[in-house]
């Protein structure tokens, strides 16, 4: 299922595993869209009127043919399923470059991530410039409370000047300028789009970003137009320089958090391409209660997990508990990225990436939870050094299908006791996904679940999602022996 607004630029890569070459076809495509039969990439412009189109994708290679139904919904709502992709922050932080983003594209295509539905390649902070004046006045700005006092410590070892960061931040027309590490933004998005993928960019509603680079405060209209002209399809908009917000709220009667984000939301929506708006306000001001009303598709529910990656389970339980009613097609709670494999230390950003402090089973838990609670399925890691295990962990098509299921049901907790958690997610085809977790870090445990706990009865076929195989018919329930921090993920209730 895919949502797009009327009269907008359209780009979609059909996810398809199998040995290439593969020949694609699509029955029922609306007028204005065209499929490249060799790549499976659909491009064009959507109809000007609201309508739903039932499409059938077909794919054939030397071993056979397969089909799958697909619905294109031309209307007011985009992001009908959680957005998927990779973001540069965890693995690259202040060292992000054009080359790294292109490498991410190559990884998606060559190692199968695009084949299971990962779509967005996101540039985070530090693609912009730092003005000479801003750089010269950093000590004073720190003293005035306008810049994080630990900024120099965090960036120790990073040479602003030799990296081409310092310079004019806007041209004579007020357009924001990328730094020397991004010599041609339009060419970069063109490379991303040529592979059927989408491009993400980052900014903030203040004068500088979290790391002190130029941001969009006071230039929202110009930057929205520039992001669109460059060809970006997603904007991560970050709550940096919180003092700006407090100043506005103290000086303007009735000014609210929603008003602070409204200008960019309006300008982004006015462009000729759909640009998904990812609000990064860390859950302050309960954005889930107002962000949908101003056209924001996803919003952070808490702080950065790269600092606290071990908190992944508690964030997922919030999504499945008090916040679950706010997730629905077009509107998604965002617990932050899946920080996986190698990431950088946010307090030593110029130093090489290191392995996250999570064991193998915990990584399976992390990915499983993001899938079943309908989290935006974005991961973040050092893409230059991604290993085969992480590729395999992320490219299980069944796990992606659960996250992208059209029903958009956020998994519910049916048990949370004795270091055991059982969660159940309903799927659009009437079946259910059951996740069994052993949260004990040192001991094995047998986790049992009766079918009546999830509204099922009699015998049930059981499919092991992580192993991607049927494991048999079970009479009244299942009992699974799990290792410490173990996870079992099963599909039940299907024919």
Mean pLDDT score: 94
Helical residues, percent = 10-25%
Beta-strand percent range: 25-35%
Q: Tally the helices.
A: 13
Q: Tell me the structural class.
A: alpha/beta
Kindly, what is the distance between the CA atoms of the first and last residues, rounded to a whole number of angstroms? 23 Å
Report the C-alpha radius of gyration, rounded.
23 Å
Low-confidence stretches: none
The strand line-up of the biggest sheet is 14-13-12-11-10-9-8-18-15
Number of strands: 26
Q: Mind summarizing the main beta sheet?
A: 9 strands, parallel
Which descriptor suits the 3D outline? globular
Overview features:
26 strands, globular, 495 residues, alpha/beta, six-stranded antiparallel beta sheet, single chain
What features would you describe in this structure?
The chain has 495 residues and is of the alpha/beta class. It has 13 helices and 26 strands. The strands form 6 sheets. The chain has a 9-stranded parallel sheet. It has a 6-stranded antiparallel sheet with strand order 19-20-21-26-23-24, covered by helices on one side. Strands 1-7-6-3 form a 4-stranded mixed sheet, with no helix packed on it. Helix 7 (220-230) runs parallel beside helix 9 and helix 11 (360-372) runs parallel beside helix 13. The protein is globular.
Summarize the structure.
The protein has 495 residues and is an alpha/beta fold.
């Amino acid at each position: 299922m895919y949502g797009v607004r009327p009269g907008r630029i359209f780009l979609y890569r059909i996810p398809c595993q199998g040995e290439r070459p593969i020949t694609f076809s699509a029955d029922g495509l609306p007028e204005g869209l065209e499929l490249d039969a060799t790549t499976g990439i659909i491009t064009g412009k959507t109809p000007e009127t609201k309508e739903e189109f039932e499409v059938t994708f077909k794919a054939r290679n030397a071993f056979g043919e397969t089909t799958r139904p697909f619905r294109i919904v031309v209307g007011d709502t985009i992001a009908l399923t959680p957005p998927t992709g990779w973001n540069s922050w965890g693995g690259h932080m202040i060292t992000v470059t054009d080359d790294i983003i292109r490498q991410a594209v190559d990884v998606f295509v060559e190692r199968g991530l695009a084949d299971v539905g990962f779509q967005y390649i996101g540039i985070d902070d530090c693609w912009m410039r730092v003005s000479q004046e801003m750089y010269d006045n950093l000590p004073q700005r720190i003293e005035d409370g306008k810049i994080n006092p630990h900024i120099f410590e965090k960036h120790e070892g990073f040479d602003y000047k030799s990296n081409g960061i310092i310079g004019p931040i806007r041209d004579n027309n007020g357009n924001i300028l990328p730094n020397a590490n991004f010599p041609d933004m339009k060419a970069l998005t063109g490379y991303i789009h040529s592979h059927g993928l989408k491009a993400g960019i980052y900014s903030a509603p203040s004068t500088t970003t979290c790391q002190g680079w130029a941001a969009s405060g006071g230039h929202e209209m110009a930057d929205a137009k520039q992001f669109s002209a460059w060809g970006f399809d997603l904007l991560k908009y970050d709550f940096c320089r919180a003092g700006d917000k407090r100043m506005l709220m103290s000086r303007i009667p009735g000014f609210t958090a929603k008003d602070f984000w409204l200008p960019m939301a309006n300008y982004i929506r006015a462009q000729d391409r759909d640009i998904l708006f990812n609000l990064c306000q860390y859950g302050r001001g309960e954005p889930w209660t107002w962000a949908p009303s101003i056209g924001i598709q996803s919003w952070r529910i808490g702080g950065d997990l790269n600092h606290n990656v071990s908190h992944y389970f508690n964030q997922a339980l919030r999504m499945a508990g008090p916040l679950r009613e706010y997730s629905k097609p077009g509107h998604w709670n965002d617990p932050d990225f899946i920080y996986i494999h190698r990431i950088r230390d946010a307090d030593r950003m110029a130093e090489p990436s290191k392995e996250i402090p999570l064991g193998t089973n915990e990584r399976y838990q992390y990915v499983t939870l993001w899938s079943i609670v309908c989290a935006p399925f974005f991961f973040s890691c050092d893409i230059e050094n991604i290993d085969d295990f992480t590729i395999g962990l992320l490219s299980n098509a069944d796990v992606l299908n659960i996250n992208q299921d059209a029903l958009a049901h956020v998994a519910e907790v049916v048990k949370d006791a004795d270091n055991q958690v059982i969660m159940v997610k309903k799927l659009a085809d009437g079946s259910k996904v059951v996740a069994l977790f052993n949260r004990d870090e040192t001991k094995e445990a047998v986790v049992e679940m009766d079918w009546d706990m999830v509204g099922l009865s009699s015998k049930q076929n059981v499919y092991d999602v992580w192993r991607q195989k049927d494991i048999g018919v079970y009479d009244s329930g299942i009992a699974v022996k799990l290792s410490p921090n173990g996870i079992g993920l099963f599909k039940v209730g299907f024919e």
